[in-house]
């Protein structure tokens, strides 16, 4: 983490005029770095460092380290573990180092070794790094100066000992004029070198080596990094150990929680609709005996601001003057102030920028108001600390000056850290003490600069590149080999039609489901598409109170779709809706009144009864879930519903008559999806075509939305699948589709379905409309899906430590069902953890390839695209940003679970119905929680696209987002030629031919044979085609 910063205060401007627009612009500019995570109910995966996406990846993560104090890569010791396990290869490390040095790898450093040798030695062997105090203890209290490190090779050890022995014997024999420190060191071992045993020689050699390293590094001082914090908080923290943020955040968090509340709070803040600052001033203007001592002057100041009609911008301007922030520094100071509570600041900014996300919106300018309140509180906290430590409570300028004076003169940077790193490197490379002692000051400066330049972050960057290179080579080699094996293999159904077809989301969790389905029924054909199925809608279910978007977050829907109950069930529906409302009111009343004095007593008396269902849910999740479903069915909408899908009015909207699509619009939706899948000729359709959306359901999981379909803005994709099936079955829509060149056979029937990726259940929609002629087709498909979902659950269970590896598929299914119903379960499923790949192309060359549930698989047929690659552009415009966003959010939440992620799920509490915080008061925690990412490999995603390099370069130029991600190396990119299967990789703005690295692709009879008995990441494997098990 960046070192503690000290701020120089200057620049008081009492006559500076207030410019509200300038203040607003500065706040908006600072808000660019705030988290963009919206309410937790619409959790949309995105690049955590979206604000730095214009930079190349490695520059951006370093900038994130400097700005947020967040780690850019995994810890060094974790990379070393991967090196020991063989998941980072020595050859890859060497290749990355050579490429990184850009032709300077053979450059010698003071005759001791080349830059390549020095860096590889530091990478191949574990290095002890830590604070100076810790290293002093290691030197003084361990055998670090008595025994060579165990990693030192015998050759290096003997070279150092032999050379040192000869030098010492010559020095003692010739009575050379040695430094006093060395003379004293020799005397500790005795002047008669002939009596020294091997242990003494080893100890003396290491003491000499340490002395040489420390003495040499001492002559090469390192300039201190300039302070980069402008906040008085950092000066006071450094000088007194007291943190103003501890005072300010306590008040600001509680107020922000109530301000953005969506129904959790018992009362509404005064003047909330006028803005954050106005509400804050109104609430805290009243003197209250309960206020903390440090806030005793707050009500008077706020009363004056209220009396004078001070705006938030004017208040900020006044605070900047009082805090003595120079005009040139104000933008950075405002940004740093917003970053101090960036979770809440980011949520407020998102809410005022996207009011349709929530029921209770907040006014524009709320973030400006929050900053104004924050600076007022900060001034009072500074005065309080000034009074406590310096006896000064009035002048902030005086307090900051006293704090500056109280700081002792800076201690020069200790050399232990640099010297100990060099000491370890010298052992690995066999450098002798006398060699180092003979170096000139210029030589030492060069050697120290070389060691310093290969800092911990730089070493981790090289490790990470080698880590990714190993996986990338394995993946591309597997694709090359598997594609060549399948090149002359025809589809199992040959000239016939597939037994059934199923289109799922491109989601990586569906990769294994599709693979198992193809193993169970080789005569089926599967497709992967964006899980909103080209239907961008606002949707309201029969039991929903509001419309919610079901489409990618980058799309704003124009159309509305509503689920209605059957006309004969409307009476029952109204009764159940009224019952749900009454139960909700009772639960709400119990929730609020149990927090009163008398309610608390009553809750304590009868509260023990609540433990019965609680314990039952933990011990008997299956039983309690059945009971809940049985009684819950009395509250749910009737089973017979229909979608209000067809619109008769011209303009779409939420009003009656404006809900739905016109026939022409439906036809366009159907044509688009069929073109994306490459299903455009009559013989390409089966009789049974299933459109399967997905989502996830689990108990006690505030992040449930993050487990659902990303293409549906964190919602369940079942309604989209249901709507598409109904559209595609409409004969009027088919007639319009035929006019656009796609003839859907009359005997093809579409069925909508929904796959719950948590408990692996699959439900089907509108089966009452299934014609009798297709019931056998459907039952056959359902039987295959039933078998596949059990196998899928079995494969998933290998990742759960609580699931024995000996489970049968039926037992595995019960296990995942229990996880979904267990309120104590922090890992209901692993979601997108381990994602590393996105494949875009025909299923032919990936079918039967075991990819360990790590790949997004998107269907695209390049033979049906036009010369402008319009279909591919359309697919990639969604697939690359969405999949990259998922991958990068998992990357950053994994490498720093605290700064980029939301920490452990265990202390999370829901705040304002918008997000989670730790305990009862903390910053709003954004990102993914620890248990969701613990098995994730933080590798940048590799896109492998079936197209030509020329087509891909054209798309990179035409789509700004794709171009930015690819050029900045936020993602890796390769193409596989549709004709030859040759692979090209994208590097530095152009494609290069990929030469395979000799990774052999093993073969297996089934997915089970690939993963059986293992909980670890698994290699690629080719699965042999089998006959149908039906």
From TrEMBL:
InterPro entries, A to Z: DabA
Lineage: superkingdom: Bacteria
Binding-site list for Zn(2+): 505, 507, 694, 709
Membrane topology summary: Peripheral membrane protein
GO cellular component assignments: plasma membrane
One matching Pfam family: DabA
GO molecular function: zinc ion binding
Reported cofactor(s): Zn(2+)
Entry keyword set: Cell membrane, Membrane, Metal-binding, Transport, Zinc
Function: Part of an energy-coupled inorganic carbon pump.
Assigned protein family: Belongs to the inorganic carbon transporter (TC 9.A.2) DabA family.
Protein name: Probable inorganic carbon transporter subunit DabA
